[in-house]
Design goal:
By secondary structure, this protein is mainly α. It has two domains: 52-395, Alpha/alpha barrel (Glycosyltransferase), CATH 1.50.10; 420-601, no CATH class. It contains 22 helices and eight strands. The strands form four sheets. A two-stranded antiparallel sheet has the order 1-2. The radius of gyration is 27 Å and the shape is elongated.
């Protein structure tokens, strides 16, 4: 964890003299030069240099294995650090039922006093709360939902009026970038578990970050008067601030996360679904409303922080003798991953960091703390492992690209239920009940083949399409566009199903139009497909079939106005959802005039 102010060495103690400080800067500049040439000074002998080799995959895997094995020997007698150790083991693939993880989870849950509905950390307040909540969420978010809610409330209660977090009961303050970083990480874990966190919490935190960021893009540990001096800027804090803004952006806007500062990034954040807490399944679902228009400010702040990091890439890391050395690399991994930074100064930051960390690992498998930081062991081991394992990357669901026609089924598509009312999304995993789509399957088999008219200018013969070959339809968007306007409602229904399984939000507008289809079965299929793409098993709160509740009524009821009302409502709701969530490249600018126009009309 980031040390408390009582344990953080002063600037003067870090730099023994101006002479030494000047020497260190010159040394780092020289190291940068040699680094770019592929040379290392880590084991410098006069007259000799060693070629730096980026850490090989096997080296990384071996270092992780050694580190995890060492971490499993941790006696779990330090209740403060237990959450970090437990989370790291879970991130490495250890089972929640393993003896080591089970002991850790027991220590964490004992801090949650169910009778008092209160979480009681042993020390370090929000640092401890965050690593505890991350461990519980990684272990089993449904089983530990009451504890996660309790800890999340503890974190929310600690937010200061200015929007950041600080040490409790320390009087007037302007916030702490490191503590705020951890508080937001904890709330993000709660959000992934299904705990509803009001928008205001994240909006205020975003405003605090934009106010406390220096003009050069950097962040300080304890900003004074909400504007730090350049001398107070730290690499650790700049990465912490940038990472926190990325977390806020992920939660509030659920959009691709690559910032303008790295236009070549291929990183994209999938849409993170928030479920009602398992303990309140029967209560009305709380839906996150539209956040304030703060995305441009967040994106600009992230862009500025990237510019600072890029400019100071070789000077930003703490010295190996400083207690924030390993903390820096885990913070780097989180900020770079969430913001889509694939390179910094044209360097692969992960390869650079892996090479440095592997060289620091001791024969025992641990990464050794400096003497003054020994009480917090094995923090350094956890931070190093989380970096090497790319732990943050695992928190971002990956969208599988739909194959071209003839390339087989969409990965993960086989065996998935067609009826999303039988599907529950939990922590990025699918839980299903057996579903019977016999009628739909019979429809697919019975349709056999249809003929599509040739495109006039191409003067080609009519195409015969085998609709019973379900896998061949998935991902063939040009074909599905034709099928979606076919005269046969059965064909349009099949098109809606296949568009959903193609799992491309870019095609949601086609499905939204099918919500108004004159055939109810097509509209229902389109709604189910949208539920799949949006990762919303229950949709936006509308009933699946507006006529179902009248099935057992003997009275003659005109269904037409009932169906029309249902279609109007779901079309409006899904249209609004799409305008808010559609891919960023389909928006004209940050202000998204199409969305504003739609909201005014409705």
């Amino acid at each position: 964890m980031k040390p408390t102010s009582d344990t953080v060495p002063s600037v003067s103690s870090r730099r023994q003299s101006n002479h030494f400080d000047s020497f260190w800067i010159d040394f780092m500049r020289l190291r940068k030069f040699l680094f770019l040439l592929g040379l290392s000074l880590s084991a410098y002998v006069p007259g000799q240099v060693q070629t730096i080799q980026a850490a090989e995959e096997k080296e990384i895997a071996d270092a992780i294995q050694k580190g995890v094995s060492a971490l499993k020997t941790f006696p779990f007698n330090n209740r403060f650090i237990t959450g970090l150790v437990t989370y790291t083991l879970l991130a490495s693939g250890e089972s929640a039922e393993s003896p080591e993880v089970s002991r850790g989870l027991k220590i964490i849950t004992d801090k949650c006093r169910q009778s008092e509905n209160q979480y009681q950390p042993t020390q370090h307040q929000y640092y401890e709360a965050t690593i505890d909540i991350m461990a519980l969420q990684a272990a089993d978010p449904e089983f530990y939902i009451s504890e996660i809610e309790m800890i999340a409330q503890y974190i929310m209660d600690g937010q200061e009026d200015h929007g950041g977090w600080f040490y409790p009961d320390r009087g007037i303050n302007s916030g702490d970038t490191s503590i705020t970083q951890y508080a937001l990480l904890g709330l993000w874990a709660a959000d992934r578990a299904g705990v509803f966190i009001p928008n205001d919490v994240f909006e205020r935190a975003a405003a605090w970050h934009t106010k406390t960021q220096a003009q050069n893009g950097g962040f300080s540990y304890h900003p004074k008067n909400l504007q730090p001096n350049p001398s107070e800027i730290r690499g650790t804090m700049t990465l912490a601030g940038s990472g926190s803004l990325a977390v806020i952006r992920t939660i509030l806007f659920q959009r691709p996360g690559a910032p303008d500062s790295d236009p070549n990034s291929k990183n994209s954040l999938n849409f993170l679904e928030r479920l009602s807490p398992a303990s309140n399944k029967d209560s009305p679902r709380q839906v996150r409303g539209t956040p304030k228009a703060i995305r441009p400010q967040i994106d600009n702040a992230v862009k500025l922080s990237y510019q600072w990091i890029e400019k100071n890439y070789y000077l930003a890391p703490p010295k190996e003798s400083e207690n924030t050395f390993y903390y820096y690399y885990y913070t780097l991994e989180r900020a770079a991953t969430l913001n889509g930074w694939e390179t910094i100064q044209n360097q692969n930051w992960y390869s650079d960091g892996a090479d440095i960390l592997i060289k620091q690992q001791s024969p025992s498998g641990f990464w050794i703390e400096i003497p003054s930081y020994q009480p917090n062991a094995p923090c350094s081991t956890c931070f190093s492992l989380l970096f090497l394992m790319r732990a943050t990357k695992k928190l971002i669901p990956k969208r599988t690209q739909a194959p071209e026609i003839g390339a087989g089924t969409l990965a993960g598509g086989r065996g998935l239920p067609d009826d999303l009312t039988k599907v529950e999304f939990k922590d990025g995993q699918l839980k299903t009940e057996a579903s019977n789509r016999g009628e739909f399957n019979q429809l697919m088999a019975g349709l056999s083949t249809i003929e599509l008219p040739a495109i006039p200018e191409e003067k080609q013969p009519k195409l015969k399409i085998d609709l019973s070959d379900r896998d061949a339809l998935i991902g063939n968007i040009s074909l599905l566009k034709q099928l979606s306007v076919n005269k046969s409602p059965q064909v349009r229904q099949v098109a809606a199903w296949a568009l959903g399984k193609s799992d491309q939000i870019e095609q949601a507008d086609l499905l939204i139009e099918l919500l108004k289809d004159p055939d109810l079965t097509v509209a229902i299929e389109a709604r189910l497909a949208l539920c799949w793409i949006a990762r919303l098993p229950n949709g936006l709160g509308h009933e699946l079939d507006p006529t179902a509740k009248y099935a057992d009524i003997d009275l003659q009821i005109d269904m037409k106005p009932i169906i029309e009302k249902w279609q109007t409502e779901i079309h409006k709701s899904w249209k609004k959802w799409y305008l808010e969530q559609r891919p960023y490249e389909q928006r004209d600018d940050f202000e998204d005039p199409a969305q504003i126009k739609f909201q005014r009309k409705n």
